[in-house]
Amino acid sequence: MSEQTRITPRSEGYSRWYLDVIAAARLASYSDVPGCMIIEPNGCALWERVTEVFDARIKATGHRNVKYPALIPLSLLQRETEHVEGFAPELATLTHLGGTKLEDPLVLRPTSETIMYADFAKKVASRSDLPIKINQWCNIWRMERRTLPFLRTFEFYWQEGHTAHATEAEAQQEVLDMLQEYRRFVEGTLAIPCIPGRKPPGERFAGAEDTYSIEAMMQNGKGLQSATSHYLGQKFSRAFGIQYSYGVGQSEFVYQTSWGMSTRIIGAIIMSHSDDKGLVLPPRIAPVQAAILLIIDKKTSVDEQLREGFLDAVRRQLDHVGVTYVLDATDRKLGLKQYDWEKQGIPLRIVVGASEIAHGQVMLIRRDTSAKMTVPLGGLGAAARLSLEEMQSALFTAAQERLRQKSRVCTTLEEIRAAFKEGNFFVHTGWAGSKEDEKGVKEAGDGVTLRCIPLERTPQHVDTCFLTGRPAEHQVILAKAY
Amino acid sequence: MSEQTRITPRSEGYSRWYLDVIAAARLASYSDVPGCMIIEPNGCALWERVTEVFDARIKATGHRNVKYPALIPLSLLQRETEHVEGFAPELATLTHLGGTKLEDPLVLRPTSETIMYADFAKKVASRSDLPIKINQWCNIWRMERRTLPFLRTFEFYWQEGHTAHATEAEAQQEVLDMLQEYRRFVEGTLAIPCIPGRKPPGERFAGAEDTYSIEAMMQNGKGLQSATSHYLGQKFSRAFGIQYSYGVGQSEFVYQTSWGMSTRIIGAIIMSHSDDKGLVLPPRIAPVQAAILLIIDKKTSVDEQLREGFLDAVRRQLDHVGVTYVLDATDRKLGLKQYDWEKQGIPLRIVVGASEIAHGQVMLIRRDTSAKMTVPLGGLGAAARLSLEEMQSALFTAAQERLRQKSRVCTTLEEIRAAFKEGNFFVHTGWAGSKEDEKGVKEAGDGVTLRCIPLERTPQHVDTCFLTGRPAEHQVILAKAY
Predict the structure, then answer these.
(1) How many CB pairs under 8 A join A and B?
(2) Nearest to A215 by CA among A206, A200, A227, A203
(3) Across the beta sheet with B255-262, what order do the strands follow?
(4) Is there a shared CATH topology between the B28-273 domain and the B407-480 domain?
(5) Nearest CA in chain A to B93
(6) With an 8 Å Cβ cutoff, are B92 and A93 in contact?
(7) So what's the pLDDT on residue A300?
(8) Which of A89, B65, B71, B403 minimizes the number of CB atoms within 10 Å of its CB?
(9) What is the pLDDT of residues B132-167, one digit of tens each?
């Protein structure tokens, strides 16, 4: 094992471990541009899988993809006051172009509401122009003081859905529908349990009436906001003049939504499933599900034709059940091959050596448990498929169990402080819900924030606000978060 | 027909027609950012199809996708002198970030050689680190004085392949291999015949040793450079210090290539196949291949169950042969539906009305010829598949015929001038190949440029240079171009 790819155990330092896993799995590396990472082939393939699977859901739910300019005139961004104020500290502004000073500086998009909605205003006239349901996969820029690959970088990638509707009810439905799409994707494909909830007012998207999110718990008990869905109401449609006419001389501003999931979801995948040996990828999102490790032993040579015929049969078994694979036929030793594919998170390794060929079988090794299984060649397809399904389900169950174990129900500030002194938890408690209370949350512990008001039943109802003792208006989750 | 979607006939003005087709097919529209277009859902779906088909070829030829930062430090860009000089007039530079003046300004990438190769220098040590074969699908920026949707915009999209090799021979092979991949894609999938050739020195990519391109002819006889492949030799590896060691204390700079195809290929699709009724899409690149037009006649009502059963059978027929489709069940009149799907370039229309349902048949209409065909329901799949294949082939044949008809062999400057006075042609002629000769090409006519030195046999060999009368060193093509 070279020094370069040594992975710090989680017990020694979770942040160091996270960076080591990324380096060892060759997902990303540092670039010469401050705060910007290079997404390496393995990381890019993972993001492409996320894109592929979720893009199909976006299209199946009636949205279509578009591309708007990455540069937004500052004057447009300033049209919705709360929006520009929220993003002001994070903007990258282009003041000169081709040596000429710009009268209206251009901003690298931190999000695309403003450029899109200025365009919506031109496209909406009557009710028949509605709904508008579009999505954009793109790069965006937000200046960050401290960067962390995938979680916080100056440039990152995401999808941003934007819709405009004739009625409030339809827009509200869209917000919740897309939140559920995120949840299904994150739980069903990424094997990460998550909690759909509403954000408290202080955590709302700048310019939104309401922000919803799905919150996931990382292995270290910290929270990660994995996707958001915003109800924008008429805030932007009033600012941009997006209205439709109906009846005689009647007109109404449209109701809008926006929703997004970014490359930070790769950070969530890493921190939910990986171990001290490196990356672990849930089979449904793994760009490559199996690595065939051909072990060419110089002592016990195998007839070339026999070997190729055997490998061909292995491939056909996997093709037949739709398992994706790579063949590692390099002359590296078995141990090195094992180590290399293991740290890259490949769900299954299939060992083919002289003895396997002679006996008409292969050895199957699962990434998460390291369990080995000898399988006759003819049963490989079925066994690989079953192993992948079991692994997908085992990863989800383990994450659910962790979420359960690292959740606490607390009623008072003292109990909450004690919990966060012990470690990182999702603390379920009651909250009175005023702006002042939200500021008071920091008293609960260093870095503790109010993550969300869960949409679903909490483990145990808390009747009073943990801060004020007043009747609890909401059940909430407190946690430290990325 | 509303004024908005009226399409200027080509005979009245080719440029106006081009813009009208884009508007009528809703491929792109203007944005509030100077020089930047909005790629609308129809245009985005077309680019996604280009991406999907060509990305599969990129991967099948052993390249992997990456993402490098969009902002490049100016100091990096300046490391290769010819490169920065070539791009200087087109750069968009970020001088301030978060209110602070940058010591090293950041440039919006006009191409990614410099940021990638600074990184290659860190990754290459020994011969086993080679070859590097990567590709990036991304947005890039080049300032343009006059913009034209898809052809010349400030921001546009492309893929850029970048490779590094241990030997010159391997790099040269890569350059030609990728040029052939472009040609196969453009001819086989987009039905656009094109001429692979080498660029004259004055048209080389800034920093390249040699630039190759595929040149296509548009309907108006103008040329469009549809993709380029560059042999960079050791120019960049020397500037960036990308070298590998071998033997004892020996080292060698790597040999490099880069190659790209952009959203301008959509301009090529439009200008190769479309007609006065609007867009025509070759079936193999059309995001939707057929529109099922359901005609609900209020007078002759059809039993709902019967109708749904019939439509379901239509869909199954198309699914079975892998033809993609949309169903237009709006209550618009047949004429309007026809007109709408026609101008969007959908290759096939399938009309289903009361009479069709009663007789167990449908009417099939081909976009390019407007030929109508009555087909029994049970034979729809086969008939649709065959029609699409015939259309794909007919579009290619028509474009080939046009290329043949608008090509001329000329031997003297006078002949060439006469040709360009008559119209736009691809003029095949002889050239002595000096830098001065290249400048002299403008004498051949206003806007005439030296497109390429074709790699393949020209229609007729010309022995002397059209400018100097000296022995011709190369056979070349002159044309007006986009």
Answers:
(1) 120
(2) A227
(3) B64-65, B132-141, B155-165, B255-262, B223-233, B210-217, B194-198, B448-454, B474-480, B426-431, B407-409
(4) no
(5) A97
(6) no
(7) 65
(8) A89
(9) 999 999 999 999 888 999 999 999 999 999 999 999
Contacts of B143 in chain A (CB under 8 A): 97-98
- Nearest CB neighbour to B38, from listed A29, A43, A119: A119
pLDDT score of A296: 79
Query: Is residue B471 packed enough to be buried (19+ CB in 10 Å), middle (13-18) or exposed (0-12)?
Result: exposed
For residue B47, the chain A residues in CB contact (below 8 A) are: 67
- If pLDDT is split at 50, 70 and 90, which confidence band does B5 have? low
Note the CATH architecture for domain A32-273.
2-Layer Sandwich (3.30)
How much is the pLDDT for A2?
41
Confidence at residue B288, expressed as pLDDT on a 0 to 100 scale? 98
pLDDT digits (tens, 9 = 90+) for A99-137: 778 899 999 999 999 999 999 999 999 999 999 999 999
Contact B66 A40 (CB under 8 A): yes
**A88's tokens:** 């002001």
Q: Please give the Cα distance from A377 to A357 (Å, whole number).
A: 9
Cα A64 to Cα A48: distance, rounded to the nearest angstrom: 18
Q: Write out pLDDT tens, residues B435-458.
A: 777 888 989 999 999 999 999 988
**A290-390: CATH homologous superfamily?**
Anticodon-binding domain (3.40.50.800)
Q: What is the 3-state secondary structure (H, E, C) of A441-460?
A: HHHHCCCEEEEEEECCCCCC
Q: Tokens 């990455």 — which residue?
A: A70
Domain segments of chain B as ranges = 28-273, 290-387, 407-480
Q: Is the omega angle on the peptide bond into residue A131 within 30 degrees of 0, that is, cis? A: yes
Mean pLDDT, rounded, for A392-398:
98
A413 touches chain B (CB under 8 A): no
**Which candidate, B368, B367, B383, places its Cα nearest to that of B320?**
B383
CATH architecture, domain B290-387: 3-Layer(aba) Sandwich (3.40)
Q: Inform me whether the pLDDT recorded for A247 exceeds 90.
A: no
DSSP secondary-structure letter at B325? E
Q: Does B69 touch chain A (CB under 8 A)?
A: yes
Mean pLDDT value across residues B383-397: 98
Question: What number is the average pLDDT over the span B425-429?
Answer: 97
Which among A32, A69, A106 is the nearest to B118, CB-wise? Answer: A32
Question: What pLDDT score was predicted for residue B440?
Answer: 86
Run of H or E residues at A285? none
Domain B407-480, CATH class in plain words: alpha beta
Which two structure tokens, joined as six digits, stand for A409? 């129900």
Mean pLDDT is lowest, of A427-436, B153-162, B181-190, for: A427-436
Q: Write down the residue that tokens 């909450």 correspond to.
A: A416
Which architecture does CATH list for B28-273? 2-Layer Sandwich (3.30)
DSSP-assigned states of every residue in A231-265 = EEETHHHHHHT-EEEETTTEEEE-EEEEEEEETHH
Alpha-carbon distances, residue A148 vs A47, A155, A263 (angstroms): 17, 12, 12
Structural tokens at position B152:
């010349």
Residues of A in contact with B32 (CB under 8 A): 73, 76, 115, 118-119
Block residue for tokens 């007078």? B299
Give B272-287 pLDDT, tens digit per residue.
Answer: 999 999 999 999 999 9
Cα distance between residue A447 and residue A441, in whole Å: 9
The answer to whether B128 faces chain A, any CB pair under 8 Å, is no
Contacts of B31 in chain A (CB under 8 A): 68-69, 115, 119
Tell which residue, B127, B159, B112, B160, has the closest CA to residue B255: B127
Could B91 and A98 be called an inter-chain contact, meaning their C-beta atoms sit closer than 8 Å? yes
A143 touches chain B (CB under 8 A): yes
Average pLDDT, chain B: 95
Closest-CA residue of B relative to A104 is B33
